What we know:
Elements: H1 30-40, E1 68-71, H2 82-97, E2 101-103, H3 112-127, H4 133-144, H5 153-161, H6 165-188, E3 191-195, E4 214-217, E5 220-223, H7 229-235, E6 241-248, E7 254-260, H8 267-280
Parallel strand pairs: 1-2, 1-3
Antiparallel strand pairs: 3-7, 4-5, 6-7
Helix pairs in contact: 1-8, 3-5, 3-6, 3-7, 4-5
Amino acid sequence: MPLRGHLPPPLPPLPGYNDLSVIGPMARSAKDLSLLLDAIAGPDEVDSGVAYHLALPPPRHAELKGHRILVLDAHPLLPTDSSVRTAIGALADHLTKQGPRVERQSGLLPDLANAARLYMRMLLSFLAMGSPPEELARAREGLSKLDANDDSLAAERLRGMLLSHRDWLYANGARSQHRAQWRTLFKEFDVIICPIMPTAAYPHDHSPDQDTRTITIDGRPYPYTDQLIWPGVATLPGLPATQIPIGFSSDGLPIGVQIVGPWLEDRTPLKLAELIEREFGGFVPPKGFDA
């Protein structure tokens, strides 16, 4: 038993629940994704697998006709490159001709701006867990100078790095409300289709300071880390998402979208991915890519 005022030595790293982390299979066809999901999905055998078994429901629809699809190509906090918007628009037009109900807006959609700020705050709270002391010291200095009214994504990331347990619980409560909004939306729609990132594939940037990195959207630079708002659409509420290729930019770079489905209904976006692949084509290697 540790003496009063002293902490026990740190425990070695153990498997556990990593909030906001993402895991899933990768493949070149939707059918292969489904097979891989069957192979890997389920409760951790060391933990809940003793008593629980996974029983994912079947997809909501077997054919394109009958699907209720909400298509998004814009975010209130970051532009979407014209190449991505054009590709998504073409996909929406193709789908409409095949019989699904395709909408481009809905009053049921959760507030994407507030969700993005919440996501950045909670994500950095998780990621900063292993930050070195000097990095946390810089964050404290930056937070001391931060305007309380600054609601930029960069400001939320800074707040997240030093989030107290009390504030994290408040944030988690806000996330629960956000999840409830998605449940309501998925009573009206089966899936949403939206960007994975605001641009086509972009050059890797491994410079040490992420705050100095940028991405280019329609010729203008934007903060590199802000692009995480799109994967955060599914990651914050923990929704299943299937990413599919839908074309190439004018300079031959691949463009994809994510099909986001209801909680625990992974087979619904997977099935729609398979149907889209069947009707409009699937994976095509980029030019110069050795398959």
